[in-house]
Design brief:
Blueprint lengths: L7 H38 L4 H37 L12 H5 L5 H4 L2 H26 L1
Helix pairs in contact: 1-2, 1-5, 2-5
C-alpha cells in the first residue's frame, strides 16, 4: 500500500469545516430557545394549562442551553486543534480530528456561562419565569 502524503492545507480545511458545522448548530439552538417561549404562549392561548406549557418550555430551553454549550466547547477545541495543526505541532499524527484524544474531555460549565450562550438562553429562561409568575398572579384575580 502506498504511503499517502500528509497535506496540512487539506487537514486545515477539514478542521475549518468542522468548526463551521459546530457554529451553525450552536446558532440554530440559540434561535430555538426564544421560539419555544413563543410556542408556549400560543399553547396557553389555546387553553393548555399555563404551568404545563411553561414547564415544558423551561425544560426545552435548559436542554438547548446545554447543547449549545456542548457545541461551543467542541468548536473551541477544534479551533485549538486548527492552531496546533497550523503550527505543525501534530505532523506526527496526520489528519487527526478527535479533539478529545488531543485535549482530553473538556468541561461544559465554562461554556454554559459564555456571553452569548447565557445571554440568549438565560434571558429566555428568565422570561419563562416572569411569564409563570405573571400568569399565576392573573389567574388569582
Amino acid at each position: 500500500m502506498a504511503d499517502v502524503l500528509y497535506d496540512r492545507v487539506k487537514h486545515l480545511e477539514m478542521i475549518g469545516k468542522a468548526i463551521e458545522r459546530m457554529d451553525k448548530a450552536a446558532f440554530s439552538l440559540k434561535a430555538l430557545s426564544p421560539a419555544v417561549l413563543g410556542v408556549a404562549l400560543v399553547l396557553i392561548e389555546r387553553k393548555v394549562p399555563a404551568w404545563l406549557a411553561l414547564a415544558a418550555a423551561a425544560l426545552a430551553i435548559c436542554i438547548y442551553w446545554y447543547l449549545d454549550a456542548q457545541y461551543l466547547g467542541r468548536e473551541r477545541a477544534f479551533r485549538r486543534l486548527y492552531d496546533r495543526v497550523r503550527k505543525g505541532e501534530l505532523d506526527d499524527d496526520p489528519y487527526v480530528m478527535d479533539v478529545a484524544s488531543v485535549f482530553g474531555k473538556q468541561p461544559v460549565w465554562p461554556c454554559l456561562k459564555a456571553g452569548a450562550v447565557i445571554g440568549i438562553h438565560g434571558s429566555t429562561l428568565l422570561l419563562v419565569g416572569i411569564s409563570f409568575i405573571a400568569l399565576g398572579l392573573l389567574s388569582r384575580t
